[in-house]
Amino acid sequence: MSEGQVTYPPAPARGSDPPPATDRVSRRSAAVLVFVFLGLLVGVAGTLVHLPYAVMMPGPISNVLGQTTHADGTASALIVIDGHPTFPTTGSLDFTTVRVSGGPGYPVNVWSVLSAWVDATEEVYPVDALFPPQQTQDQVQQENTAEMVDSQQEATAVALRKAGIAVPEKVSVASVTSDAASGSALQAGDVLVSVGGTAIDSAATARAAIQKTTPGGTANLVVDRKGAQVAVAAKTGTSADGRTVLGVLLKVDFEFPFKVTIDAGAVGGPSAGLMFSLGVYDKLTDGSLTGGKNIAGTGTIADSGAVGPIGGIRQKMVGAQRGGATFFLAPADNCTEVRGHVPDGLQIVKVATFDEGEAAVKKIGTGDTASLPTC
Description:
By secondary structure, the chain is an alpha+beta fold. The protein is built from 9 helices and 22 strands. The N and C termini lie far apart (86 Å).
């Protein structure tokens, strides 16, 4: 042994007795230990390795006719109407949700993706299919919140009008595109008073009035600009589909005659619009719309009453079934995704407008379900 070299622990001298056989680790035990160690390594690696996917799974449901629970543990009505008579309701009108993991700020690991692939109620998407590239967690939250606010406003307008209550609209210029044919004639914040002599009381009226001008011609408008009415001659352009355009984005503000508050908690996005509108309408009108039945559904709502398609329809049907609903209102444009994926015990009702949704709920409430349209 050279100087400074030490063997530790000291090896028994040649000719000395070996350790007892009972103290030795068998080859089988050693193999098990190695296997367990490798398994732990793989498990840790699967947890730490993030993948560019998003997993969509069923989320909870909430009854718009019921209560919402706040962060401090207190509860209040999900829909509150102040300044107008309301009526008692029964049953439930549930809006459905999905949970998404894998978006900005919430990466998924290998095990989450593998688990979703074998779970028939979950779906895996490339993350860019659900979230724009480079979008931040804060931007996702802001977008979802804005869509929820818009959805609640449109749902309220639809419900009030169906109940015979007038809801005027204020149509204004949200922004002017950089290549607008009208140039600087219109400014953000301008409120449209008239277009071509037609008084503007809704976005639909404004768009129809603009179409009366030939593309490339001049539209004569009167706008309210900071409290003063101003006459504007705005040159028009042509959209890709041949429509007449001013090159501005319009914004609609509803002027409600009383206050309607909808508190959906931390839920964002526009897909609860149909159920919000049915809930507000039920509270404003005498008699129980549901007849005491448990009805769930989904779908965006436009101020025209049109019901639009949403994402995650399969997960939302599962969530509705798990929440105890027996009927599910599905947007007509989602029917291709619905077919073949309806959970046991859930009857699907196809709707394309608020009126169809309201009629369907009434029929379900009275037990007249044989003629309900389905996907």
